[in-house]
Write a structure and sequence with these properties.
Layout (H helix, E strand, L loop, with lengths): L11 H9 L3 E8 L2 E8 L1 H17 L14
Antiparallel strand pairs: 1-2
Length: about 70
Amino acid sequence: MSYCGLNNMKHRKIIDDMVEKEFIARTNESWGNKTIIKYKVSEKGREILKQILEPYEILFPRSKVGVDLNDDR
């Protein structure tokens, strides 16, 4: 979850909702007496990315250079 910035405790409802809607897949992996929860983008999630986020990036590209907070334009 560190990749996207979501916290398992604070954002549990968002994560569960994304799993329920099949945008991401959850797997549990045992490591000794602990269980590691892993998430992976599903094919449906990839389609959402292509349909919504990629066109958004084309319309509003991210700045390749840092934002100048002193720019008074």
